[in-house]
Amino acid sequence: MNITKESIDSLNAVVKVDITAADYKDKVETILQDYRKKADIPGFRKGHVPMGMVKKQYGKSVMIDEINKMLQESLNNYLTEEKLDILGNPLPKVNEAFDWDAEDFSFEFELGLAPQFDVDLSAKKKITQYNIVAEESLIDKEVENLQTRFGKINPVDAAAETSSVTGTFVNAEKEIEKKSTIAVSDIKGKLNLKKFVGAKVGDVLELKTKNLFEDDHKLMGALGLSHDEIQGLEIPVTFTVEEITETELADLDQELFDKLFGEGNVSTVEELRGKIKEDAENQFKQQSEQQLLNSVTEYLVANTKFDLPADFLKKWLATAGENPISEEQAAEEFEKSEKGLRYQLIESKIMSANDIKLDYEELKEYAKGFIKAQMAQYGNMSPEDKELEDIANRVLSNQDEAKRLQDQLVSKKLLDFYKENITFKEKEVTYDAFVKEVYK
Question: Is the CA virtual torsion 274, 277, 283, 285 positive or negative?
Fold first, then answer.
């Protein structure tokens, strides 16, 4: 057997595999001898079938199967030994003159080679790193939310802007009959608000769905409809008032503090506000760090220039799936995936050049930390190590979950690396300003 490579250019090559009869003949002969011993053919005793008959019946298929096995193994070994960094998989070249009746065979495979390039981390245009702070008005609102959640609910005779109203929405034509509890403060527009304020149990309010709530998601919940069903929904509904309540805010006292944070952990309103600020800014940090990683990714893809073997990759995409696709579909698929492929190559280059890697034990520790944080949300603040270990092993036995956690950990490691090696423009903003600036 002989394997040679011909370079077409820096991104494309052809590998030729020559197989002679001497490479496969002995193996084929051994397999056929085994067939002969086991063959059960009418008119012949088992093990006494003429070899000529066995070869005639099985010889060609055994030879083809054996050559294909040798071809796949030798090609894989060659790519590994030569350390060829390829994209996609080798594509066999069609040979119209190929003949399985010959003794010697030549096979050719097209290769798409990974490009050579350098990654420059000295950003010319500085990338913004946001530090999101919790403003006082946000903390005020969260304090009120906590007081409302733990407050006392009292029935009242007539609805006010601060009331919650329970009733049934009806529209016979759309077969809507949904009992819901809504906050009067969520109602949109002065005319709609006027119908609710002063309403009493038994009153029937005539309303229109368009612009009824400040948030369309509130309309979804109130009417029990899906997101698609409320799009552009403009119908009349009646709302029969069945119950009206006001929430008496819970006192900001030690009893509330202990309910929220455990006994003795918070003793004053100032400490409560500090906890709210800390929790909010921890959540904001996750969002700002994801945005920073996205920004670095966009920057690196836009500013790391290299060519790809585009024609090869389109051809490969056309045949890579379970069902072949057309050239036009493959071109569209390549256009969709090109940006992701470029970042994969950049990411791989950065990790390789800077010895960024992870092993199973590190992934398991990361999984345990993730699981521990989830358990804490449900009140289990101190799970035993064995319990965490068992859950982590079960989670990582699921390939999809393991891949998801691995991707998260790789992203974390890369972000830590970027923070150490890229100079960012730091900017302190409120959450509303962050959303407006980043997602404008």
Answer: negative
